[in-house]
Amino acid sequence: MVRIFSHYLHRQTLLQVFFDLGLILFAVVAVVLSQGDAASSAIPFVASHGLSLAGCMFVINSASGLYQHVHNRSVTESCARALLGLMFGLPLAYAIFSFLPANSSHRDLVTLVAMAAVAAVMVHRVYAAHSGAQSRLRTRILIFGSGQAARSVGQTLKASDPHAQIVGYLPGPNEESSCIPSNEILEMRGSLTETARQLQVNEIVVALSERRGGSMPLRQLLDCKIYGIRVVDIATHFEKTLAQIKISHVNAGWLIFGDGFNQGVVRSSIKRVFDVICAAAIFVAALPIMLVTAVLIKLESAGPVFYRQERVGLNGKPFNVIKFRSMRTDAEKDGKPRWATVNDDRVTRVGRFIRKVRIDELPQLINVLQGDMSMVGPRPERQYFVDELVSKIPYFAVRQSVKPGVTGWAQVRYEYGSTVEDSVEKLQYDLYYVKNHTLFLDLLIMLETVAVVLTGKGAR
């Protein structure tokens, strides 16, 4: 894993991105070079257009979810996503290279090659996702521990990280009971450092169930780090592997003394400028869709077009969120707040569609422009539910240290949830966002939101 602007990314993902972008740039420049010295003067123009196309393809592939690592994605689904990307990529390639000067040598040939490069990128995306060719790049991980915590780490790696190869488990000195099958338990070959080096380990995850009485061999772990082996604790492991902060494996000290949770005036100002620009642009672009939605809501049922409800915002300050009404006007006629569920019978037919594609969220752009919300942040909750969750879930109030968002890390990473248990899972993503949020992460979340909308998946 590589940490870029406080967010963890797979090295393999970065290599794939650079390969795809480089393929487009190389193809268009190479075809110009092949035409001889007479065409060499066109290289700066072609290269700049190639970079523009490569950047656009990165956005398209990210928004299509083609850079996500999903174990159970079928070849058919990958092909469907690639075809969707081609629908945007091919016309875009044609449009970008049509802006080359009319007297440019072989403009039509360069345009054709650019479109072929886009198609090659999509074929490579599907191939890379299902060929297993990346197994040579796997990270060799040794799990130090054999209890329940170690088993949880192993299960996470097997389910979530296709680039991880678990070398085995080493029991801690004072661990009496094991939750690991005996065939996966390793024997110490000298010291911990010597064992790790002999096994050619890249990373050690410390997941001891018992840390008292000298269970943690600090000197040996330090030696491992000196020899270039990464050593991480279990909380950091979950943070970088799942992009979550697991409440069950952190304490206040880890949160306080670790990095992150940096708000700052500069960061807040940059985020505000980003919010205003994005919200204004999306509002103008989506205005026709919003007008049609308003008409359909009025035609289906009597009542207001917009739904206003008090939510908890930054630092616990209440504000009125604005959404398109997707439920009947008597949804809470008894006056008691209720969780929204997946197949909620209070949702109208128009409401069901606009909720699925998130059109009902568009009026929240007004909240962003007013300063009550951000484009990206934790989902704003009602005071009734906040009071309940704060009393039941540790650190829940931490999510209120940033503005709530129209979309968020939990929304794109976790399926629809309507229980306290679901709130715990989503909080763990929210804590990750609050700890590590940057403009870079905001952009990634907005791209993933597009993928969620296009596929109809994700949380609400």
UniProtKB/TrEMBL annotation:
The keyword Lipoprotein does not apply. GO terms for cellular component: membrane. Keywords: Membrane, Transferase, Transmembrane, Transmembrane helix. It is a multi-pass membrane protein. The chain crosses the membrane at residues 12-33, 45-67, 79-97, 109-128, 273-297. GO terms for molecular function: phosphotransferase activity, for other substituted phosphate groups. It comes from the Bacteria. Belongs to the bacterial sugar transferase family. This is Sugar transferase (PEP-CTERM system associated).
